[in-house]
Each structure stands twice: as C-alpha cells, then as structure tokens.
Amino acid sequence: MPAKGKHRRPKSPRFARSIAVAGTGGAALALPLLGATGAHAAAPAAVAQKAEKAVTAAPVAAKKVVGTKTYRVKTGDYLSKIAAEQSVRGGWKKLYSDNRSVIGGDPALIHPGLKLTVGAKAVSGGATQSSAQAPAPAAKADSAPAPQAAAKSTAGYTLPVAGGSVGTSYKVAGSMWSSGYHTGVDFVVPTGTTIKSIAAGTVVSAGWGGAYGNQVVIQHADGKYSQYAHMSALSVSAGQTVTAGRQIGLSGATGNVTGPHLHFEIRTTPNYGSDVDPVAYLRSHGVAVG
Q1: What is the spatial distance between Cα 249 and Cα 129, in angstroms, rounded to a whole number?
Q2: Number of folded domains in the chain?
C-alpha cells in the first residue's frame, strides 16, 4: 500500500497546476501547449503536407521593384544608343519616360555621369499571387513588330519621321540659303523624335555637317542619296548597312536653325547641290507626304 501512495503524489501536483492555470485565465496558453505535445506525438503526414502547402500559397508582396539597375551615362551616349545596348523594351521613349525627372524636358540633353534607371519600374496591384502560380505571359510582347515597321510602304520605303507636319517646302526661294532656295523639305517635329532611314541602304557619312549640324547621308539601291540634318543625336556610323525604317538618330536643332525640325533631302550624289524634289521622290515610292 505505501507504494500506491508514492505513485499518486507526483500526479496530484501536476493536475493542480493545470487547474490553477485555467482558473487564472491561462487556458489559452495551456491548451495549445498540450495540443502541440499531442500533435508532435501523433500528427499524420497529411497534416504536415497541408501546412507546407499553406505556406507555399501565402500571398506575395503587392508591390515590389523587379529587374531594375542603374546606368551611368558616358561620353558619346544618347538615349537610343543606351536603350539598344541595355535592351530596353519600348526603346528610348520608355527610357526617357522612366527618367524624365532626372533628364528634364529635353531627351537629347544628357550628360556624362547622369544616373539612369534601366528596367522595369515598381509593380503594384491589389491582386496577390502564390509562388505556385505561373507568371503572366509577358514574353509575347517581345515578338510584336516595332511600331516604325508599320509605316513602311509596299515598295519598302517609309517617311523619315512619324507625325511631323511639313514646314518649309522644297525650292522655296530665300537669301538665307547659299543656293538661293531651300534644297530639301522640313518636317516640324520636337527635339528627340525618332528619325528613320526611308529605305534600305549604306550610311555614307554620319557626323557634323556645318550649317546642317549633325547629319546622316545614306546611299540607296537606286543610286539616290537621302540626307537627314539638324539631328540632336546619331544612332549610326559611316559604312553601316541599314534597313527601311531603321532608327538613325533623333531630331534636334543643331547647326543653322531657328527651331527644332528635320531637314530632309534627296540627292543624286552625296554632296550638297545635287538635290531633287524629296516629296516627289517619296511619293514615287508609294509614301504619302503631308
């Protein structure tokens, strides 16, 4: 009988302590502890699997920054060049839009040392996703044709700029021109507008052209030459082969000008003074002007 008394005495204090905790409002703490002890001893594998799935399906942050990096502008850089080298979807316009507060109102004016954000911006939204969800199929956008390609004519020619109105026409007389008349046609567009090669060809020259400012001259298969002047930035170099609609630079107001525009010529040689009517030339290749 003494042995039975010794067996009951250790259990009685534990039971008393359990009741005491519950009586002082501690049931919320005592019950989970007891349940956890039991679960550790007897929980089936299915319960653990459900817990793991619940953690996997937890919602991710609704706002995060993905795929961004900082690019420091170097001497000779311009937005279209940076966009091409960094594979920016949306080109220089996207790069400018993302960094407008840093660059300012003129996309052609960037200086060495300027820090630009390259890549995706912060992504936010009310919807959440689990880590098990498949990401949204965004890759299809990469295979979409470039907007400039849609402007090509059936003959493989295109306008040098999109959306620009014709300013000074060809052969307008005036003492301001050394030849006594305007040797090309002006497309009135703001600085930073994409300038495209009107047709496939080879770049004959790309650089400073005196009164023409920054200019590009391209030779085409029919023996004619196209000239693009007063550019704020160049995207090509001499000897380079280009296709119709290929960006060759950005419009600007360099050289002898009163405001930003594209001066465009068609020539029979790469040199000044061999001009022909550029509007008639484009129209003969199926491109509507004005």
Answers
A1: 42
A2: 2
What are the backbone dihedrals phi and psi of residue 80, each rounded to the nearest 5 degrees, phi first? Answer: -65, -35
Q: Judge whether 19 lies within some domain.
A: no
Contact between 196 and 158 under an 8 Å Cβ cutoff? The reply is yes
- Three-point CA angle 253, 254, 258, nearest 5°: 50
Angular region, 181: left φ>0, alpha ψ -120 to 50, beta rest:
beta
Residues 78 and 188 in one domain: no
Looking up residue 165, the CATH number of its domain turns out to be 2.70.70.10
Residues 162/146, Cβ–Cβ less than 8 Å: no
**Which tens digits make up the pLDDT trace of 173-206?**
866 666 678 899 999 999 999 999 999 999 999 9
Q: 108-146 burial by CB neighbour count: b if 16+ within 10 A, else e?
A: bebeeeeebebbeeeeeeeeeeeeeeeeeeeeeeeeeee
Which pLDDT score is estimated for 202? 97
Which residues have C-beta within 8 Å of that of residue 224, sequence separation ≥ 6?
A: 266, 267, 268, 276, 281
Query: Per DSSP, what are the bridge partners of residue 71?
Result: 116
213 and 254 part of one domain: yes
**What is the token pair recorded at 171?**
């052969």
Read off the tokens for 289. Answer: 């002007």
How is residue 73 annotated by DSSP?
-
The β-bridge partners of 166 are: 187
Per-residue CA distances from 161 to 51, 96, 106 (Å): 60, 18, 18
Given this model, what pLDDT does residue 46 score? 52
Q: Is 31 inside any structural domain?
A: no
Q: What pTM was computed for the model?
A: 0.49
Residues of the chain with confidence (pLDDT) below 70: 1-67, 76, 105-106, 108-109, 120-155, 174-179
Q: Look at residue 193 and tell me if it is in a domain.
A: yes
